[in-house]
Fold each of these.
Amino acid sequence: MITLGINYSQMHDSSACLVRDGDLVFAVAEERISRAKHDARFPQNAIRACLEFAHIGAEQLDEVCFGWQVPGPGFRHDLKCYALGKMPPTYTNGLSSTLHFLSMWHQEGGAKRFTQIFGATKARMRFVDHHLAHALSAYSYSGIDDAAVVVMDGRGAWEATSIWHGRDGRLEHVLTIPFPDSVGYFYSEFTEYLGFHRNSDEWKVMGLAPYGKPGVDLRAFIEAEAAPYKVHARKLVTNGATPFAEMVKLFGPRRIPESEIDERHKDVAYAVQDACEIAMMSVVKMAVEKTKSRNVCLAGGVALNSKANGKIVASGLVDKFFVQPAASDDGAALGAALAPCLDGGGRLPMRAMRHAYLGPEFDDEAIETALRTYKLKYTRLSDAAASAAELLSNGKILGWFQGRMEFGPRALGSRSILADPRDPEMNAKVNNAVKFREWWRPFAPSMKKEAAVEYLESASDSPFMILTAQVRPEKRAVIPSVTHVDGSARPQTVEKEVNSLYWRLIDEFGKRTGVPVIMNTSFNLRGEAIVHTPTDAIRTFFSSGMDALVIGSFLVEK
């Protein structure tokens, strides 16, 4: 059976994936191909890439599964919220988006768009509840038979948080906390108050938080320690006559985007992150208690909060922990594609996901064609890993373009910018001259999995760069550019069996420097999607302060 999974809601992060007989064979976000970050349009480019990879046409699909339910329940829920006073009349964004969603499905629905673009198909069009799609993506790809599954995001159709119990390849719903009682909504509104973009820049708040200090009281907005947490959504409303009124009254004016960061902003960021961590811990504890399982799987946009994830792992509350690497809405496509497996009392395929290299790949012939098109001088390498390691050990900043593109928000050694983590100035160099982004944004270390125990206090399995750990005090001066101000790092543990080329690059760097760790950040400039094609890589390379580009078997230097 061939199943196409789609995330499409016209809100953010459209994507598509292809599953054959329960095996995930391809996945890509629309933004990577369209180059529009967080692209919310119908993912026709992503779908086409899925079909081309599998060498099939739309007529050969058995199921087309959308990771959103039909809009009726969500619309009714929002009307109920207004009627009960849970959202004030001035909050028009929520209602208008629901009306838009309703109109989209009835007038220009995903199923109709699919057949208009790709032609008639015998495939069944299926609409999967959004939180169920998230839960399926976390549970099935964890490979853990018995697990508590937690979904936390801004909102589904009407859900904000849900708990499920996965057993023997099936999912049982335990409870749902409805929108607007949402940790994701709470976090995104403060993201906007701090001068960033909601549903996009939450990473910036998480990165800024360690520079702040305790003292800001957010109890007017969230009761994080309650079981479960409680969000006071009316206080968070950002539109209407007086946007951010409660926040402004308590904490001062909203930060103007791109203006200076002051101590007040840092302290608010600290409090927001702290509340998120407490609320997430509360939900996980509740999930463990209700399911009697100490194995936990997470999905939904809130599950990308790597600092909170690290604290959950370090708490001793869980035995096994898995976060689906594309935990935000793009990953809902992965779960939607598995929904047919449950038909007729069926079971999910329980196959542990060990990598996210699920996207397109370009061979040396395609890469060399691009290099010649731009009339670039290049060198063919006999050993790309060794050559890159030598450049890194000499302080060069590299673009690294190899193999299949990663699915999810993290660059994991296929579309990465790499640098020497030993240089205490390297963080500033890459932020200022390469990424053109804010000074406080941290970078992640990629390290050989077997070396993690030497550098991290809690050396958990972390192939997806999805949780933080404390760097051992004696190692913080050794890898200063990937150690955040609070002593933490967001590591990627690299396995030789999973990505042999990237592992060997780190190994070769270790042989030259004694440090089997490299700085890794996504291959993109600020505000852009991670590079997709060789042309994207070449353009980004020459638009930034990178010193060299190792692309396939070729080296380009400035």
Amino acid sequence: MILIRTKRAKQGDPLTFKYTTQLSSAQPGPKVDVLDAAAFRVLVSELYSSPDVIDLLGEASTNWQDEIFGSAFSHNHNLSASGNMVTVPWRASFHFNENAGVLHTDHLKRLGGRINLQPSLLDDHLQFNINLHASQLENRIAPRQATGYAIGFDPTQPVRDPQSIFGGYYAWTLDGLPSFTAIPNPVALLNQTEDYSNTQTLGIHANAEYSLHFLPGVTLGVAFYQQSLSTDRESYISDRAAFRYQRGGQYDLFEDTYSNRLLEGHINYNRFLSSINSNLNLSAGITRQKFNHKFSMFSSNIENNLAGSPFLIFSDLNGTNSKHFSSLTFAAGYSYKYLYFANYNFRSDGSSFYSTENAYSGYHSLAAAWKIHNENFWPEDFFLSYLKIKTALGQSGNMDIPYSSFVDQNIRPEKFNSFDLAVDYGLMNNRLAGSIRYFYKDQTDLLVPVPVPSGTNLFNYVLTNQGHIEHKGWEISLGAALVEKESLSWGIRAHLTTIQSHVIALVENNQDFLGFPSGSIGGTVGTAIFILREGFPPRSFWVYQSLYSSNGYPMSDLYIDQNGDGMITELDRIPFQTPYPSLFMGLSSHLRMKNLQFSMAGTLVTGNYAYNNTSAFYGNYSRLYRPEGQYLGNITTEALDLNLKNPHYLSDYFVQDASFFRMDYMQLAYNFRNITGRNLNVEVSATVQNAFVITSYEGPEPEISTGIDFNPYPRPRIFTLGFGVRF
């Protein structure tokens, strides 16, 4: 079942308009600390005596990260109206926003609208809800590789060269032609890449609920959802761009059309049984969903290009694919005297991803609760004003396949068995309220990409069921209404989650089996940084344990021999830390003084580590001079302390603690109510997002979803002024 909730009008409401606008300025986040031009010249002169290398130094002083990053302005507008057309409540909204990115040439424009109608018939026994929405998104996409090139490009070279035939941009050349292996000028990469996408979305969601006249408590419902999404992405790289000169420029066109259709029907019986002071709720439903995808791809170089390369079509193909999902559900709920509650749920899910034998899976769940504070023996005016104990035991599954790959013919859906035990509480008439929850989840039939021996298949790996993982932890929430007065209120909320995950078993008979590797890292080909191994957290980093000097830096090629055989091999790599946090905490506060409001929210995450791929790649002297392309490249200032001649990608040094506290937002708002005695409300606000971050992580951004930090795009700090009027 898909439940879509939108803002709605109510029957009898007067005609109301609301307009809000937000003006934002985004400032680039922290940058990678690299050598400036002066320090770069000194280091190159110290390490290289050859005139051929020294002569490569330029006379400019360029901060390449400053050249590609800058402040960005955005504006966002929303207009809505609601009311009643005869007796039909309606609501319509329109939005437009335009956002520039802090990475130059990043730009997004979005336009959309929504209409909601809620007619009813038969004395409101038959109710309809109809939603129509449409949007268009235009996007210029800046190539993200520019962030890495700005870290590593020679700071003594200029951005532009008046004598350059490559669009007037400086480029590394050999015999007058662009160096094939040299990294591109990052500013040229941004300005000479025109990558545009245009996406149109159109959707309708309609549902009807009929409460039977002749069977009180029985409701029949049907729902329909249809969404279509069409995307055209066109990319053009000039034949005068040095980084595509030898290829003759590049032109790419991608066209995608997605459609998603859902049909649902359900019946519900809800009845209060006064004779036994109980409430009974029964429901059953059926859902059918279909996804269609049509695509085409075309890629070529540019005709009559500057390099004189022949016109070539690199790819020209199209295709379609589809997938189907279905569900049968049944639920039963019973409560007695609003004291005791019990629920049972069953669902059978089906997917076209799987073979006939494994296409359907059934899942059961049970839940029970006891509101102790409603018992007769509970003392009145007790400081513990609310106490509820609840528990649940259930099953669920993953009917989707997370990878686009070759799969085992006998693959089965992942399964989850879970157990929860929780206590909800309230103190002092619920001025202080929260919950404490213990959870356990058992994940079996894990979907894992297993490497395939070379030559046995067209694919490098096959997706199959391998493994068993358990997750367990605690969730604690607390909310406090510290002050509750007519002209003053102040409340805070906190939420804390701790979680531990371990691989219990992997289906593999080989005693020398190391586990399943994954996660490619930048700078190497075919090197995995993660390992799935029994007894360790899933996606543990897989590294060598370095020997360290007294100053805390790894000692060149020295690793610890874990096996004691006198050799350093892959068998000496160890699972070490994980990108998944062990503790997550959210904290928010809201203060109101008459019409003035202040709110804030922050996030604390600990136990998560990141592989600092940027430091591993640029933190060594080998990046300074590349003889194969005869060009110079910059390095991080940390490289001077590491003093490594070559990269040591698999050293545990680069797996670094990425715990952090982030102030997500802070907002100050004032509401001018009932201006001039009329129903006119005006609100003004000032907000800062990503206000500050406290972390010991060495990279510019500690929150890294993949766990691999390479060529980072730091999260910007955004200042927003908001204005809203309602009448």
Amino acid sequence: MKLKRSTIIGLVITFSVIIAYLLDPAVLKFMELKSLDLKFQTRGILQPGKETVIAAIDEKSLDELGRWPWSRNIQARLVNKLTEHGARVIAFDAVFSEPDTNPGLAKIRDFKNSLQINNEADPTLIKWLNLVEDESDTDQQFADSLRKSQRTVLGYFFHFSETGLEHLGEELLERSFENIQGTHYNAVRFASEEAISAYLQHAYAVESNISILSEAASSAGFFSFVPDYDGAFRRIPLIVSYKDYFFPPLSIQSLKLYLDKQVSFYIPEYGMESVEIGDILIPTDKQGKLLINYYGPPNTFPHYSITDIINDRIPEDFLKDKIVIVGATAVGIYDLRITPFEKNYPGVEIHATVIDNILHQRFLVQPEWAKLIDLSAILIGGVIVTFVFAKASVFPSLGYTFLAGCFFLWFNYFLFQQGIQCRIISPLLNLVLVYAGITIYRLFTEGKEKRFIKGAFGQYLSPIVIEQLVAYPDLLKLGGERKILTAFFSDVAGFAGISEKLSPEELVELLNVYLTEMTDIIMKYEGTVDKFEGDAIISFFGAPLPLEDHAKRACLASLEMQKRLQELRMQWKREGKQELYVRIGLNTGPMVVGNMGSKSRMDYTIMGDSVNLASRLEGANKYYGTYSMISESTYNAAREVVEVRRLDRIRVIGKAEPVTVYELICTKGGLEPQHAKQIALFHDGLSYYLEQQWDKAMNCFQTILEKSSDSPSSIYIERCKKLKIKPPGSNWDGVFSLTEK
């Protein structure tokens, strides 16, 4: 099968986008990150669990307790209060890397040392100095509170870049490492020797808490984040390698303490898959990073001011059995983070979010198999748009492309709500590029062919046919195809006599008005005007556009034409012009439709016996005095939408097979009660007629004529009189043979 150039262009663009997806350039990466933010914002706020709260270093606390950093005795008081209130875990999103500044403590120690050196120390004085020293040693007080609490997790931070480490000396780095060494992961398993070299987040330096605090705390975890390409924080490493050890974040250490469960993980050759804490399996990417499922803007988690906690303004049950994360939220002192919901987001709430994600297993995962969904969306979307374009024109294709994009957006968002993150930009970009690429190609290449077709045939064929020829130029080839269609024939009654009364100019003017009005109605119902033969209109319904309800459309168009002509007659009468009446014949059946003629001159038309029958029915109106006649096949296909009167069973000239014919009266439900009674009476008379009960039949028809003029009733009365004199016999089938076209 030979592909069109436009199809090849669409497929080339699709495979180019697939290659770009696999290469993942910076611009696509940036757009995908922003689309993820938009999905968070579209989803809206989620309510977290009740296990995690924030002990906030807020403006209120600064006003009452003094400027930050506070003396360590305030931290000690906080730990004591949280312990008293039953907090299960107390985690600090802060690092105490330097001893507390207390000039008075240094003077006391110097004075005491000088007394001891000179042997001038009074035991009572030394005892008092020891007491003052203890009260002034806030680091020791803080350490004592940490040790007594047995539920604290201190924070520290890693440097993930080799630059900017000049201020850290070897001694400080070694001491900091010693302070965190005991907090590393113990249950680490590697699939093989190759797995040991799997890429994980690596740190180049660490700054930890001072030794006295590190030794007193129950545990410690890093609170460092690694920003995405655009500077936002969407992922957190659950494992960081440093000096041949693997270290956990503050959130994992807090959960480990809260659940009293061990943490373990297995590293295959291709990288991390998950971290296990108790029975909870935490999904990660290859580098061991968790995609954070943010719940909302700041203050999504409960915040309690530290000054309120210390001064017993918080009910005890608010903190009982909670994971309390101590962190700054006051403007100017807290670490501002960019997140999907907010540009200024307190880092302490990120830790709370991670803890809640894990605790309630509300994960947002981007597994490796999600790439199959991404690639399938790109490929299927591109192929669909490409081949739709091969069958449709620019604007319908735009509609299909838009629907395909909407479906993909819905499906992608549906997966997101289920916790699965898939790419959205690459598939949508592919749809846009395929549509734009093929459209541009058509504008510069196929546009010339379209203009030729419209210019050559626009004056002779309906706009629908023209659009079909533009979309499918192959239709211009000679030949046709067999289809079930509805043929339409109409002719002006007594046109020869009318034309004799009018000048050529008047006749042309009248015909132009008539033909324009009638043609517009045919077009309205998507019929195809075949040709005009003087006052006659030949058209058909169901081709070139396939229409399942072509018989209904043809009937409704015929009724609307008769109605519009009635309005025109009233107008012409007021203007003193000639009035026109039209006879219509419809038949539904198999016929050949297509381009007929020669290679140099052709006509898109219909041919066949079913076409001829429609023409004969139009002429049969003249005999019965009716204006719209349809065959039984048309009536059976359109009976749901029209009201009819069964006229007769006839045999037309040139056709041996008889056909039942109906007068088309109005749309379904449009009959006046009196008219409906007359039709019922006519059908009774027709039944008597077929049963050869001539007197009863004539009585029915005569009753109709007494109330209104009805040509078919008059015809049947005359037939009954003749057949009563000369009965047709028992083999009579009731068929009437017409002798004129």
